[in-house]
Amino acid sequence: MSTDRLLAIYELIALREREGTGPGLLCTVAAQITRMDGAGVEISSIDNSMTGLCSSSPTSVALMDFEKIAGEGPSKSANVSEVAIDGSDLTMELPPWPVYTPMALSVGVRAVFGFPIRLGAVRLGALSLFRREVGGLSEDQYSDGYLVASVIGRSLLAMESGARSGELSEELQRHSTLDFAVHQAAGMISVQGAMSVKDALVALRSHAFARSTGIADVAVQVISRRSRYVRNQGFVYDANY
User: Fold this and answer.
1) Which of 41, 85, 214, 236 would give a disulfide with 114, using CB separation of 3.0 to 4.6 Å?
2) How far apart are the C-alpha atoms of 60 and 62, rounded to whole Å?
3) What is the mean pLDDT of the chain?
4) Secondary structure (DSSP) of 75-139
5) pLDDT tens digits, residue range 65-98?
6) At what angle do helices 179-192 and 215-223 cross, to 10 degrees?
7) Neighbour tally for 217: CB within 10 Å
8) Is residue 188 over pLDDT 60?
9) Structure pTM?
């Protein structure tokens, strides 16, 4: 359930706050939740230039620097396209980013991923994840990636609103809403149906309208595995539901 994953994220944020992790807190939590080797968050400006907010490790810092030097990479691609970016094999013959990829390989990174950070229609930046081995993300990891990106977006808003050090997890829980569930379900549907997250959100809304129910209800059904999206068939429900 989305609430279970949110609780796990909140608990990790609270734990890191108590440990005094500092500015890398959100990135450390993102790497742990998604079970990746590291994470970085970059904030977008009006001209789509990116500024580093946090990193979970020196390698994450290096990867963000490489994106600035190369002018390309998973964070920039996720921010501009507003969809998840899959760079699961940087060793392939034709890499997705010809300048950035050799730099990433030079520090032992073999796979990178990017998730857009948004609040409604507002583009805030991107979350990047890396691992040292070639390999794609599981459906759960994609879902968690979108969810933690949404939490980071809320965190940025909370920090701008004056949340004090050590109180971020409490501030997030006070303002948590069902849109986290919708974003998590959209991430899952985008993987299941091999579509963009925008199209997944359209599918969610259309299905909710057809069933005369709320979009949050449909989202919860997807997250709980009572329903899944099958390409060319639409939403398929568990026979026991």
Assistant:
1) 85
2) 5
3) 82
4) HHHHHHH-S-EEE--TTSSS-SSTTHHHHHHHTT--EEEEEEEEETTEEEEEEEEEESS-----H
5) 999 999 999 999 999 998 899 999 999 988 889 9
6) 60
7) 12
8) yes
9) 0.69
